[in-house]
Amino acid sequence: MAAVAYETLQLHVTPEKFYIEPCDDRVDDVLAIDRVSTEVTLTVKKDVPPSAVTRTIFGILGTIRLVAGSYLIVITKKKKIGEFFNHVIWKATDFDILSYKKTMLHLTDIQLQDNKTFLSMINHVLSMDGFYFSTTYDLTHTLQRLSNTSPEFQEMSLLERADQRFVWNGHLLRELSAQPEVHRFALPVLFGFITMHSCSINGKYFDWILISRRSCFRAGVRYYVRGIDSEGHAANFVETEQIVHYNGSKASFVQTRGSMPFFWSQRPNLKYKPKPQINQVVNQMDGFQRHFDSQIITYGKQVIINLVNQKGSEKPLEQTFAKMVTSLGNGNIRYIAFDFHKECSKMRWDRLQILLDQVADLQDEFGYFLVDANGKVATNQEGIFRSNCMDCLDRTNVIQSLLARRSLQAQLQRISVLHVGQRIEEQAEFEKIYKNAWADNANACAKQYAGTGALKTDFTRTGKRTQWGLLLDGWNSLVRYYKNNFSDGFRQDSIDLFLGNYAVDEIDHNNPLHIQKDWKFLALPIIMVVAFSMCIICLLMAGDTWTETLAYVLFWAFASFGTFLIIIYNGKDFVDAPKLVQKEKID
Fold it and tell me: What average pLDDT does range 197-211 have in this prediction?
């Protein structure tokens, strides 16, 4: 079986079945899905009823069972991102969710409402920007992993050979996965960020590609998913690969980011920065060792770059991480702590060079992956930088972009794009492309995890910190605060449902959606709106004297502030918490 999937399909819908037909005259196979039994079979084109309603689709994302029964999710729109070694890479931009059931009359009013809520969760995930696929190329593996495979692996379907960490529709494709004969209809979809640019330096044209692959293990949103799970999967784990293709030669440099890999949490409670809590009950070393054992097998030697603050609430996390690395005693792991905020305080971002100089010898030792024009592997990347801050977003992306530039400098000189003594920073046109791409990568990763664009992207885009960038960071921080406290519970539930961490039981009348919100949660917006409104009314309806007006304003301002203090004191009662997965599973 060739490692390709069908590129364009015709979906034929009848009351009894879905028929999915490849738009390829050389293929007679048609996938048939029974809308009653949910059975999946192969049939032929002549079996498609002429009365079927037909539309064009670009892939099957998979199937999911909700309260009303099963649903088929298909890709209805796509956008071409570029070509990757003559393989077209697409972004899925629109989807459709089709019910197997022809009517909802079998549902009660409560079931109808529950089903509507679950559908809104699936639609929320599908509305997130960042789903990519190729029908002819395996996007889930790095160039180095793909170079070290057997002929048998090359003949596997894209679904069989994919790195399951990065197949975000793996749960949705479980029924098709069980039937190898239909794998060409199954399309593994990556979630993250991909950008491709055709560039020129010294009149030499090359392709520059940046790929970030977000893991679907321990996936979720900022404050509800931290640390690791019992299997050693880290929250917000992203593998980022930078690729250069010139005149037949291909080079890549891979980095990872992920939450500090031990058991800790940081539940929202209306405070701007909730205090992190380290789990003192569980055996921390088991999950910690599992994490790094798998990382070393996959990537080789590890250099941990921990960018968190070394004072305040972040200090215990840094100390715990350092202590656990020492206790593990693994010679393949090197730990480097760099207090990003302290070192770069007062806009002194030039001090990042201190860290780059500190790791320069290690980066030279690790090298990068390179295949020459004849297809021969010239060098392998022997180790990896695993960077983290608290969220593994803003600070982390800045450092990754600087490490990637240093590697790219060496690669472009090796393949003779840059002349001896030339530097990337001097190539104004390419430097602009490079900085904007890394800033776009930061924004994509941040929106998927924290709900807003990244902070500090003014430095990534321009190479310096600006006052406008500080203002934009302030706005994004405010939006993050709101989303993290008042909408992230729904976002976390949506991801858990999509990935199969929660399964809907059609006959379970005690599903967690029926848990009523605490009265204090419902009262919060009313209290705050009334208090704020009274302040405004006092200003508009001024008293006889300014003293009287000021007294009214101060009264309601203090009332608002007092209410806010009460909320902050016990803020966890007011946040939008997840309902579908129990607390111990996401702590």
Answer: 97
